[in-house]
Amino acid sequence: MKIEHLHELCETIAAIKNRTEVQLLLKDLLSPKELESVVERLQIVKMLHQRIPQREISAQLGVSIAKITRGSKALKRSSGGFSRYVWQRKRPSNPWR
């Protein structure tokens, strides 16, 4: 992947002002399965960050322990984006809530 293409994607998403427009873009960019995987990964990471046991996450989301373990590994090697996501979601001033 070329870094300038990643930057362009990030700038495009960052320029969007509301949840509906982001959702429309993501639905156009990603296949339904890809979008489902991204949404699922964020939920897994959020629940892991809350220290919810993997078996409970598996039961609540209907996903395998292996998928949760992959999410846990991604969280451990994160460059900080996951932590920022979880922190942002806790802030009451989030304009998309």
Q: Topology of this protein?
A:
Layout lengths: L2 H13 L3 H11 L2 H18 L4 H8 L3 H12 L4 H10 L7
Description:
The chain has 97 residues and is mainly alpha-helical. The chain has helices at 3-15, 19-29, 32-49, 54-61, 65-76, 81-90. The longest helix is centred in the middle third of the chain and has 18 residues, at 32-49. It is globular and about 35 Å long. The relative contact order is 0.09.
Uncertain segments: none
Q: Characterize the main sheet.
A: none
Question: What is the end-to-end distance?
Answer: 32 Å
Tell me the total number of β-strands: 0
Which range does the strand content fall in?
Answer: under 5%
Structural class: mainly alpha
CA radius of gyration? 15 Å
Helix content: over 70%
Number of discrete helical segments: 6
| Rounded mean pLDDT score | 87
What assembly state would you assign to the polypeptide chains in this entry? single chain
Element pattern in H and E: HHHHHH
Shape: globular
List key phrases describing it.
mainly alpha, 6 helices, 97 residues
A few lines on this structure:
This protein has 97 residues and is mostly helical.
